[in-house]
Amino acid sequence: MQLSREALQRAYRQMKVIREFEERLHSEIQTGEIAGFTHLYCGQEAVAVGVCEHLGTDDKIISTHRGHGHCLAKGCDIEGMMKEIWGSRDGLCKGKGGSMHIADVDQGMLGANGIVGAGAPIAVGAALAAKLDGQGHVSIAFSGDGACNQGTTFEAMNFAVVTGAPCIFVFENNHYSEHTGVDYAVGTQQDIASRAEAFGMKVWRADGTDFFAVHDTMREALAYVRAGNGPAAIEFDTERFFGHFEGDPQRYRGKGEIERLRETRDCLKKFRKAVTTAGLLDDTDLDAIDSEVLTSIDRAVEAARAAARPTAEDVLADVYISY
Question: What CATH number has the domain spanning 5-305?
């Protein structure tokens, strides 16, 4: 499917926003201003954007502990996210979610989740609500090669098939579950999609470092699910450029592995080469987007640093429901 010039520019901008958001966090975390664990998404941008470009605000997504990219791709505000990560009361979750628990229900982003595999059951619940609503909306469960080994994920997939829930399980196989290689941890010969297929759902596989492959695959899967055929699953083969968490020494990586991946498996480089070679966009167009994005990230960091911090009176606010 040929995308318009505007759609290509938007896709590149979304991927670039995620990349620069993460690269900036990587450096800012070294200052000690950001509390708690942070898990970066660099390298996987094509999956988040290629999937979410097809979704509306009434379609729901559930993310993982590595959730910044999904949030941004779904439309969450850059400054609101940065303030949240800085622990500000002006953040998207008033500073109480932090990096691993950002949510924005108004954008259909039901939350990142620090527990591996915990998002899949929530996504199925949202899908069942969509089925009852009857408006053709869907729910997306983002997870990785680690979550594919969790019982919660198995139960969610089985329940989705049994109930015909319009849920798409998106597995981002970046080859490492924390520090453990997928070749050691996944018994189905590293094939995650076949596990979903065993539950009776239709599956797709695609190169997660190629935006166009992701976009086309998601379009097919989404059409299938929206047509009332029940759930589906997609396995995207992708890479992460940073460690499991910020501070991870990555001693499990091979010598020169990260440098090789950044050179040969970078989704932004592949996108730029594809669109400029085809004459769809030129380097001037993309360079202008790069500049615009960097400015927006600078502005978000400055706003986060200056934003108000929670007070003692805020401790119990929005924690308990009052009837």
Answer: 3.40.50.970
